[in-house]
Amino acid sequence: MAHTVFIDGAEGTTGIEIRDRLQGRAEFELIALSDAERKDPACRKAALDFADFAILCLPDEAAREAVAMVAPDAGTRIIDASSAHRTTPGWIYGFPEIVGPGVIERATRVSNPGCYPTGFIALLAPLVRARLLPRDWPYTVNAVSGFSGGGKSLIARYEDEGDLAFRTYALSLDHKHLAEMQAKSGVNHTPVFAPSVVPAFRGMLVEVPLPIAAMRTAAAPDRLRAELARYYANSRLVTVHQGAPSELVVRNGADPSDRLDLWVLGSADGTRARLVAMYDNLGKGASGAAVQCLNLMAGTDELAGLRV
Ligand SMILES: NC(=O)C1=CN([C@@H]2O[C@H](COP(=O)(O)OP(=O)(O)OC[C@H]3O[C@@H](n4cnc5c(N)ncnc54)[C@H](OP(=O)(O)O)[C@@H]3O)[C@@H](O)[C@H]2O)C=CC1
Ligand SMILES: CC(=O)N[C@@H](CCC(=O)OP(=O)(O)O)C(=O)O
After folding, report:
1. Nearest alpha-carbon partner for 284 in 254, 250, 261, 253
2. What is the CATH number of the domain that holds 125?
3. Are 200 and 215 in contact (CB under 8 A)?
4. Is 307 a domain residue?
5. How many angstroms is it from 148 CA to the middle of ligand 2?
6. What atom of ligand 2 comes closest to residue 83's alpha carbon?
7. Which domain CATH number covers 57?
């Protein structure tokens, strides 16, 4: 029998892309609310309680409300795409490659990684755990996102203001992803985070520059690359590239992708490196990650419905 799935926030940017990935899958039956019902608390509660799986594609506050609405004995298993529960005790972090095998499969409450933390944690966590990079270093993160990363409101802004060429933000040095980045990568200090948006619908480049020579306990770039390649060797979504491309580009009009591509770029003398992650904010950064977790929780092929 098919698993029932309710996407709360199904008409939003992340919700629509999850629906696209589930379309035509016989293992899942989608519960859909009409336009008149989709923000009605009673209709949402009924759908949340009925569903085998609820995927929350909502602003944080609405995601908290949704979790509180679910009857304790309903048995609904929840995947939350928002940042409401990413460091909340009792929630499993929905990053299969980082939490390891068998964890998400059994979980009842899964909080998916944020789009920027996905790249940062994919790059850093394995290297910090392997003691090839120090925990006790003030890491910096430079990142570029397509404008769909800001959901419907940022999409509307980019469509309305046709002249936005480059936008850097979080200029107060605060951002909702910082706690998650620090906690899930295992580093001691809050990173200095410089996010930005370019006028492409989707795509991300997340980079961690490393002044290796000044870090004392950091391994050489070749060793970092070899460890990441070993760590992700069995992953069908994550590729650790050898060598250095001449450039990495976020393209306007790129197709959806659920891949995660990683590079360790090193200077010839090994004293400096750039860790770089490239992916789709709506793929491994959100909707693809949610479907990957759903697949694991439902016991189907982990990558079914994903664009690899
Ligand atoms: N976009 C991205 O790349 C990523 C997004 N996320 C997270 O996923 C979540 C959803 O983001 P995104 O899809 O981009 O956002 P959108 O703004 O595009 O979509 C949010 C949807 O939620 C609906 N909604 C808002 N409040 C309620 C409510 N009380 N009850 C029911 N529905 C409600 C909105 O309705 P309406 O259509 O009427 O506005 C909208 O359809 C957010 O928490 C975001 O931070 C995480 C990683 C990446
Ligand atoms: C471009 C843009 O605005 N991005 C969003 C983050 C999008 C995302 O990852 O959502 P979560 O916060 O749920 O993780 C921001 O910086 O607030």
Report:
1. 261
2. 3.30.360.10
3. no
4. no
5. 9
6. 13
7. 3.40.50.720
pLDDT, average across residues 137-151:
98
**Quick one: average pLDDT of 43-56?**
98
Mean pLDDT for the stretch of residues 139-159 = 98
113 lines ligand 1 (CB under 6 A): no
ipTM above 0.85, yes or no: yes
| Rounded average pLDDT over 229-245 | 97
Q: For residue 130, what are the domain limits?
A: 115-280
Predicted TM-score (pTM) of this structure: 0.98
Whether 79 and 150 share a structural domain: no
Ligand 1 center to 77 CA (angstroms): 19
Q: Are 47 and 92 members of one domain?
A: yes
Are residues 231 and 187 both part of a single domain? yes
Pocket test for ligand 2, best of 64, 93, 145, 198 (most atoms within 8 A of CB): 145
Q: What are phi and psi of 240, to 5 degrees?
A: -100, 115
pLDDT score, position 1:
86
Residue that has been written with the tokens 């925990």 in this structure: 135
In a domain, residue 308? The reply is no
Mutate to test the pocket of ligand 1, among 58, 121, 204 (most ligand atoms within 8 A of CB): 58
| Distances in whole angstroms, Cα of residue 295 to Cα of each of 21, 27, 253 | 11, 9, 28
